[in-house]
Amino acid sequence: MATLLAIETSCDETAVAVIRGLTGHRAEILASEISSQIALHREHGGVVPEVASRDHSLRLDSLIRRALDQAGTAIGEIDAFAATSGPGLASSLLVGTSAAKGMACALDRPFIGVNHLEGHLLSPFIDISEVPPHLALIVSGGHTLLIDVAGAGRYRRLGGTRDDAAGEAFDKVGKMLGLPYPGGPEIEQAARDGDPAAFAFPRSMLATDHFDFSFSGLKTAVLYTLRDLTGPPPVADIAASFQQAVIEILVGKTLRAAAATGHTRVAVSGGVSLNRPLRSALATACSDAGLAFTAADPRWCTDNAAMIGFAALLRHHEGRHSPLDEDIDPNLKLASDDGLCEHNPSP
Ligand code: KG4
Ligand code: ZN
Fold first, then answer.
1. Taking the model in full, what pTM does it have?
2. Domains of the chain by range and CATH?
């Protein structure tokens, strides 16, 4: 029964979790504390790296104390310290990994560097604590990925975005529509009063035989539509039509990837998977195709440390720790297409 403390500081959330491994690989999240920097970055319309890392280092100490308090655990009872080591903003990753390494060093405990994307990928399974073979769709602010998952640590990349990530497209279109940052939840909200068929935006790469995505054409189509309008923009209709295009692209590709790999389960994770119309479109499409569907719990969709702790716990069970001189990697990949996860090299 190991207890781990995990830190997430790859982008604009400072997060600390305490997770306990139970018998049979089950896991219990004892604490999950998050301090969001959204308000800080809002005035700039996006994340400013130096502002982010300075805020992480200001908040981390009190967040660690709060998480330990919440968990009712003394720091001396922690068996291993984990932190996101990539991908993400270099200066932000350094804050979390340095803190985790410092505690590991002072208390003579192992350190586990976790791939942020593996955290997202595993997040739908935190509560059931086992990772079945499945087709994973990760949709976040920085990534849009389809991964063939044979089990924990066994990943094959099928495709990803060639330009903007899905969340990035939501954020950029939100900005064009004059909505606050981040655009994703704002567009979902605005779209409720809009007509998803009002504008025929492109569904790029939907019919191709590869599993890559492209959202920049869709973003540009919204820009041109706004430019050519006379009068105030119909924000709700544009938001609904844009959201509908993203949903059709994501659902269409995911279902084709599931069919191509023969997986009978689809799982979705990442900040964009909070989007309710997307979740229900995926659930319906999977059910129509006779596939099981698991979506990450809303608590674990946007960046959090519980998912980092869960990924670390699976590694800890196998005794696979990281050296203290392991570097961060802002461009860390989840898996190459030869089937190996860079961060989890054993099959
Ligand atoms: O997973 P996440 O916290 O960050 C990354 O690892 O990138 O995801 C943040 C992204 C942002 O782009 C945000 O706009 C998007 O998730 N997002 C949403 C919704 N809530 C958050 N996108 C669409 N609909 C939502 N309801
Ligand atoms: Zn993320």
1. 0.94
2. 3-124+300-317 (3.30.420.40), 132-296 (3.30.420.40)
